[in-house]
Amino acid sequence: MKVRLKVWRQKNSGTAGAFQTYETPDLNPNMSFLEMLDVINEQLAGRGEEPIAFDHDCREGICGTCSLVIDGKPHGPHHGIATCQTYMRSFKEGDEIVVEPFRARAFPLIKDLVVSRKAFDTIMQAGGFITVRAGSPPDANAILVPKEDSDLAMDAAQCIGCGACVAACRNASAMLFVAAKVSHLGLLPQGQPERHARVKNMVEAMDAAGFGNCSVTGACEAVCPKSISIDFIARMNRDYAVALLKGDAKESASGAG
Amino acid sequence: MNLLQRVWRSSLGKKYVMALTGAALFLFVVGHLVGNLQVFLGPEAINRYGHFLKTTPEILWPARIGLLTCVGLHIFAAMALVAQNRVARPVAYAKVGAHGATIASRTMIWSGLIILSFIIYHLLHYTLTLPSVNGYGFDFSTLREEEGRHDIFAMIVMGFQKWPVSVFYLIAVGLLCTHLGHGVGSMFQSLGFKNHVWGPRIGGLARTVSVVLFLGYASIPVAVLSGFGGGHLSEVRARIAKRVSEHPVVPGRIEVSHGTNTTGKGK
Question: Alpha-carbon distance A103 to A17, whole Å?
Fold first, then answer.
């Protein structure tokens, strides 16, 4: 099969970008979208042109490195699937496919389709640590976790931090990402000691990074390659409200020990 | 940092403000409809209700001040949020998908602004009873019953008999319906009272309540345009005409001197 690609090309953040159109050679329909880009890049390199820069790593849907807005939808036409697991058979012969980078002020463009998602790392760092007992392995089931809590925590923990939620949100809001990260520890007993400090710090880091706000359109959960529910945003909203009402910890006069 | 500053500075905090003021305004919209629907019980019921509100300033003024504060905060927070949203994506996509986002959810700011313009008009029309905006050119507050109470019933019927007023009203309550269809559900989301059990129910309930509110509000102008209240209005007109003929010029009685316009003869 052959398709026509309209790809965003931009040398770096300091220069203006534009779409460029490429006709693909005959493709195997079972190629992944990224493999198709590899084929084009080989051609470009062969002609002495600059290959298209795009993010990719594991190519099996678990690392969160691949991105791309394909025909207006982050990660391409399917639900619950990342770009790396989108296959050319999902498109039709002769389709024109528009490929754009994730667009958000907090995700500055580096080159072509590559954007910096460092803001997510900053938010994660703001979340800080959880206190765990280091040393010998704990007894199994020493801490009891209700099944529904652990299931829900695991649903949140599925977030691979790809940034599709930001890319799809009309306000470029990172709420779904932050909500997933806040909730997967907040739901478990191990995450309780720092629960309220964590949500405050992560939300404040998110605000400082220049993301937009949630208007509850549900676009984020619709494009999430891990189908994370916006109910987690409600959970984060509640945790943050409780954290604000509790206030910051009082400075201790005596100190520990 | 103190609590209020923290609420105002954070993205989530501003959403709390939106949700709490929105909840208060939603309750008002429900109460206002229940009050208004008394028009279908006839002039006595709604005029007594209007008279009760007018003569109970200890309820009326706290409610007015509270509502204006809520409207102000709701708009102020919305503007701050929208301003942040606008700058959050400096380069637009060439191809944009809706990803299941409803039209209502994507047009909250526009439905909100049109509703705001309607609220301003509605206050000028029925609360401040400005003669220049009601299409008749006289002050609606001069419409009185024989005992001197405001004739709210006549005011409503006369107001809505002007079709452009009714059309604007219907557009505004229609947009209020879409605004609340998304807003009432989002209120629970923003305050964190939503999970997989209640989420779908809250969404469905929000949309149902919005449609009920729309039907309730729309029923009044629709009824008036189809002739409801015409009988009472002719009685009022006859009474005014009688009084004008008995006391042709009574200085200081605005009611009478302007009242002639309602008969369509004077200018």
Answer: 13
Which residues of chain A have a CB within 8 Å of the CB of B194? 231, 234
Q: What is the number of alpha carbons within 13 Å of residue B100 lying toward its C-beta?
A: 11
**Mind listing the domains of chain A with CATH numbers?**
4-110 (3.10.20.30), 117-246 (1.10.1060.10)
Share of chain B above pLDDT 90, in %: 76
B98·A231 Cβ contact <8 A: no
Which pairing describes strands A73-74 and A96-100: parallel, antiparallel, or unpaired? unpaired
Mean local confidence (pLDDT), A70-93: 96
Residue A190 burial by Cβ neighbours in a 10 Å radius (0-12, 13-18, 19+): middle
Q: Do the chains contact at A215 and B105, CB–CB below 8 Å?
A: yes
Residue of A149, A215, A242 to mutate when probing chain B, most B C-beta within 10 A: A215
Is B105 close to A171, i.e. CB distance below 8 A? no
Q: Pull the structure tokens for residue B166.
A: 């009714």
Closest-CA residue of chain B to A215: B105
Kindly list the residues from chain A whose CB atom is less than 8 angstroms away from the CB atom of residue B11.
Answer: 173, 175, 203, 206-207, 211, 213-214
Residue ranges of the domains in chain B?
3-86+102-263
CATH of domain B3-86+102-263: 1.20.1300
**What whole-number distance in Å separates Cα of residue A34 and Cα of residue A68?**
10
| Residue showing tokens 């009044």 | B220
All residues of chain A having their beta carbon less than 8 Å from the beta carbon of residue B91 are 103, 109
- Residue pLDDT, tens place only, B121-168: 999 999 999 999 999 988 998 898 888 899 999 999 999 999 999 999
CA of residue A182 relative to chain centroid, distance: 14
Residues of B in contact with A73 (CB under 8 A): 97, 99
Residues whose CB falls within 8 Å of the CB of residue B160, separated by 6 or more in sequence, listed in order:
B166, B169, B220, B221, B224, B225
